[in-house]
Write a structure and sequence with these properties.
The chain is α/β, with parallel strands linked by helices. Helices cover about 50% and strands about 15% of the residues. It has 11 helices and 8 strands. An 8-stranded mixed beta sheet has the order 3-2-1-4-5-6-7-8, with helices on both faces. Helix 6 (about 160-170) crosses helix 11 (about 245-265) and helix 7 packs across helix 8 (about 195-215).
Amino acid sequence: MKILIVGGGNMGKTYADAFIANHAVAQQNLYILEHYPEKVAFFKSLGFEHVFFEVGDYVSHMDVVILAIKPQDTGALFPRLAPLIQAHQIILSIMAGVRMSSIAEALPSPKIVRAMPNLPAQIGMGMTGFTSTDAVTKEEIFNIQNLLNTTGKTLYFDDESKLDAVTAISGSGPAYVFYFMDAMIATAIEMGFSQAQAELMVEQTFMGAVHLQNTYNLSCREWIGKVASKGGTTEAALRQFQTHNLHGLIGEGLRAAWLRAIELGK
């Protein structure tokens, strides 16, 4: 399988590194197209063999073309790619908010996959939702999922509109976690801990809680019940959260992100 990654930014490099590290693609079969000369030199310095500054005939020989560019760059790039795209090629887009119909209008392949990864994909702990056009076969979906799984876990959806919700939940999700962690760290410092002490306590608490959730088959509410004893400290904190409807506010935030994702895709 020959793969071209268009765009050598953070996610483009994430996929390139993950494919090689997980032996999903042989290095000689991985191609990178990068707009900036300094990044071309950078990738070559890392040992990547096929790194290009310009669109060329090599595009026609790819099995998968991954679009890891900013949506605003498509206007200049797509007209140069289009004459070289073949109908059998799979176009895998990780561009936020760009519908498959828009890609299909610009590039002459009916085989389009759209994926929404999140930031932890950079360390192999990502969550990616993806979908595809009807022209993509089950075998091809399986192959694409294997590629995406090199950066974490994946979920396939038949309905493209689900990716707007994926964006709101897992795409933006790391920022919500960091927001809550930041509030806990700031409060710990107010209580007299140093920055380093506060960060260690909060970071380890989050890591431990997630590992517990992954290790045992209990719901979040069941875990809350195990931590919160009647009349105790945890219950005092939870009572404040409930008084100010923190649960509802979080839901409102997620819905706002969801609606914004829908709006950006129009």
